[in-house]
Amino acid sequence: MWGARRLMTNSGRLRGWVFATVLLWMAIANIYVLWESRTAMAKGYFDFANFYTAGALVDRGLGAEIYDHEAQWKVQQEFASEVKIRLGPMRYLRPPFEALLFAVFAMWPYPKALLLWTIFKLALLAAIPFVVIRGRPWRESFPIWLIPVLVLGTIPGFMDVLLGQDAVLIAFLFAVVFWQLDVGRDWVAGIVLGLALCKFQLALPFVLAVAVAGRRRVLPGFAISAFALTVVSFFVVGWKGLVNYPAYLLALNQSAGVGIAPQLQMTLRGLLTFIVGRLPYPGRIHWVLAPIALAAIVYAGLIWRKAGSGFLAEGFGLAALVGIVTSYYAYSYDLLLLIVPLIAMRTRPDDAPRADRATRLLERVGLFFVLFTPTFWFVNYLHDQCLMTLPLLALIAALVRRLHAGGRVSEAGHTLVRDCVQ
Asked: Which residues contact 353 (CB under 8 A, 6 or more apart)?
């Protein structure tokens, strides 16, 4: 038995190092691509251009114009005039309050601001593992400090850095939320989760699932944070800009050529659009997906609640995945949220229930297609990134199975305690 256990341990270490080596080589390849793309990035070809534009308008006292087409175009012509692929401005989509963060970076010229933004995100990325683990034993064979480098070997990390997106910031906030839930400070978790409303399409489903799971104390903190950010947004864009923001987003969704086509998103909406046809605004699909999304979120919370607090990592991961898949908008970089539950599940205690073979198979297949960079380039070549929703559904199924098994263990434990008391 001792020899078999040692063999399994050595086999696990070997798999860990093989996994790390593959990701490391993909990270090296991605870093090379980033280096080769540095000129295009500095010229304003990618997404950071719209963040910088909003920040620049706030710096100039023109916060009320951060959603104005002409004001955006005028600012972008100052630093991105050499961009040849756009006939209009890259639009700012985030809520007004996040523009205050980018106003800090807009104090520098665009290339330097992008560099500082990238350094800031890499620092947050490096901090995430230590926020999640906090001294608990790390069970992989490779060291924990290697995780941020390995993340760059995955498409979510690579695309976030290349495009200058804010997904690392959201992942860091979710890491803090996990930490606060883990130590029982649910109201603080709610406050931090409110800060993630800069991507409200991910934060709102998640907070609903957490509340259904029995952690209802997140709601007061979330409401306080949301109210405070609404007040901040009012001072940034004024009452008119705040009221018109939903209509602004809806108008962009109905416009062609702004880069928010459903089939480019890793969501059920994108997958269903792929199946029924490539429509610029598939309005009927929304009526089909809305009740499905709500049911999925509630179901995720219920089975998380049934499994109990000992399955925080699995419940957290399921709520995050369901939030992504049922979201109206979710792109490859949004999958960075998965780093939180993946790290947390690698620090489970030794006596935690083991997953069965089918569950482990679903996890491995799902993670392989999500993390293996060539898979994304293939679906990107097809212009059908929505196909990546399929491995996400496999991961959801695996987490559901884990939580169902945990629920059965919890019920058995409660039954045993009740019998002993009687």
From this structure: 405, 406, 409
